[in-house]
């Protein structure tokens, strides 16, 4: 079911430094988790761009990805009010840690290649209507 744009509330501007992770698996839980006690990534190099960790015995390779300039990441939560559904912003973020099973993330991954579209949108200035009156 599509949710109309007027039913999306972006008013909450809580931009904290909690880590946002995108894992390559399905976890039957939505919400915050105390990951810092159980999920501690180790850096492969000094600049801490490439990370390694084990999740339930499976190796994961990750990389921190910044949201492109001029854009924000939003975590939305669905709430039902009367007969309509609304999406409310519960957190904004400027970076996310993206994980792959046992291989380093690359631009060939759908998640990372989707971020290239933000750059492609900036190729030229907006096109103005050139119709003559």
UniProtKB/TrEMBL annotation:
UniProt name for this protein: Uncharacterized protein
GO biological process, one term: RNA catabolic process
Gene3D superfamilies: 2.40.128.680
InterPro entries: RNase_H2_suC
Xref: Pfam families: RNase_H2_suC
CC terms in the record's Gene Ontology section: ribonuclease H2 complex
Taxonomic path: Eukaryota, Metazoa, Ecdysozoa, Arthropoda, Hexapoda
Signal peptide: none
């Amino acid at each position: 079911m599509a949710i109309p744009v007027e039913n999306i509330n972006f008013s909450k501007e809580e931009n904290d430094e909690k880590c946002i992770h995108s894992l390559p698996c399905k976890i039957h839980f939505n919400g915050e988790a105390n990951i810092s006690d159980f999920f501690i990534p180790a850096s492969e190099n000094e600049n801490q761009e490439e990370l390694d960790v084990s999740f339930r015995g499976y190796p994961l390779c990750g990389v921190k990805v910044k949201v492109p300039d001029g854009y924000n990441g939003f975590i939305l939560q669905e709430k039902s009010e009367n007969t309509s559904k609304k999406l409310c912003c519960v957190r904004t973020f400027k970076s996310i840690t993206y994980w792959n099973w046992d291989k380093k993330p690359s631009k060939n991954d759908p998640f990372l290649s989707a971020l290239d579209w933000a750059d492609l949108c900036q190729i030229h200035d907006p096109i103005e209507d050139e119709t003559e009156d």
